[in-house]
User: Fold this.
Amino acid sequence: MGPFAGWSMPLFYKDLTPLESHIHTRQKCSIFDVSHMLQFQIVGGSRAAFLDSLVVSDVSAIRLNTGKLTLFLNENGGIEDDLIVTSHADSLYVVSNAGCADKDWDHVQKHLAAFVQAGNGHVEAYKVLANSLIAVQGPETARILQKYTNLDLSKMAFMDGVYTETNGVPIHITRSGYTGEDGFEISIPSEEVVSFTESLLENKDVKLAGLAPRDSLRIEAGLCLYGHDIDSTTTPMEAGLSWTDWDHVQKHLAAFVQAGNGHVEAYKVLANSLIAVQGPETARILQKYTNLDLSKMAFMDGVYTETNGVPIHITRSGYTGEDGFEISIPSEEVVSFTESLLENKDVKLAGLAPRDSLRIEAGLCLYGHDIDSTTTPMEAGLSWTVSKDKVLNREAPFVGSDVVKQQLETKGGSRRRVGLVVQGAPAREGAKIFSADGTVEIGIVTSGVPSPSLHKNVAMGYVKKGMNKSGSKVKVSVRNRMQDAEIVKMPFYETKYYKLP
Amino acid sequence: MHEWIQVENGVGTVGITNHAQEALGDIVYVETPEVGATVTIEDQVGAVESVKAASDIYTPVSGEITSINSILADKPKLINQSAETDGWLYKIKLSDESELEKLLNDAQYKELIGE
Assistant:
């Protein structure tokens, strides 16, 4: 296991080494748990116009049920994040990086408020979260909660928030709420929320609580983001409680509050997991689980559908260069669905290690490494994501568009992303790139790996503009030894994206 | 930390432990020191690389490098197969045998890695 964007993620699974898992993906079928990524939905009549104001692509032009890789830029034209947008009849489905989740969400929220205030129409955005969130509210809350944590809650002021644990279960708690009362919001793994809630209920002062009165919920717009308002396509996951439990909770909450017992609220939380099922055998195997004809789905197509009665969102995409699908599925169903997939002998679990080596072979950028807020689309070789129509024919169409336009017209920017094949030791992130005679530093490696498929060391990085010609000989310094390298075109390994017959 | 040394007649054979090779996974490249180089205890003298990561090799003792395991250049996976025997990295003529006293013995190391 390893830390990744604040999550503990499997680097690889015991039954296969990273190398074997990598090769397995090229040859068979692997499942990646990528629930750590930010998933959100944008709804409302002006959703495309709104997102158009933030990204380089022409969102309005994305065909129904298809997706597109695009970029958030800052005012300087630097890339704030890369993201995939899939267009649906009533919504846009967006997936962006876990490491940028907060930043992206802030960015979206800030511009959304301005957009709506300016009278541009109706737009709303909803996160799809992986953890459950409960709000425990009312004057007795701190006294009761104190039994469940070693943290001194009396030292927590309103709006303080910390990561801590209860009975060994890691939680995030904030002294906040939307009730006007003292209280806490607790983010807890969905599989633990039921037992934790049951344990709280053993205190006589806590009635199994339910939804807040409708009108206060309406006021509490923030919670509606995680809630149950609009999502017609994702099964609301009631923090692990069944519908029956939830009805029970709501009934008793209403009675409890009406009886003047004080202010208590409980909130339902939406939670979908995201898995990437990748490799040439994927479509054949997945076809068993859906009535949808997968042969009609082209690369980057995406639809809402169902498997065995469970609503899912699938896109024909991934991060490996292979054919494959990314499947968004309610978290309470993801384990049994994954186990069911694993009953196919060609399907294996895969972790971050093969995910990284596979995406490098495919020449795909990892945000925070190969692109960041100082890189422009032109420099990163991502100009293909930019809608020329938007940039050239509309007035300041999106954040950062001035810089993009100027760089498109002048082939500007100071550097270019290139692929490298390196002799000797593998070059990894941070290795410096020098001119062929080794005297002048011309750039830096941003990702590199000994390629399991090609049996040579591949890397990507940036060199000064003008020195990026394919076939150029350069040197790369690894542990202070100069090694021969050559600039090559990417992808290193031919991608196998699905084309319609 | 995860290197081993076996000393015979003042010459030590150095490699990485089986635990280390398991943690690294498939080894794809080995960088060994130069024969004849004089190194000081805890100097970085090479590296072992897997698909997953590059791991530096630190010499557990001071001395002069007398030979390297040349098979590893073509067959780095030898370390995965036999890290503590055929997959040795280099031999070193010790300049100060008292440095050996600072190292963990087999039992202490196994305790460290929880075996």
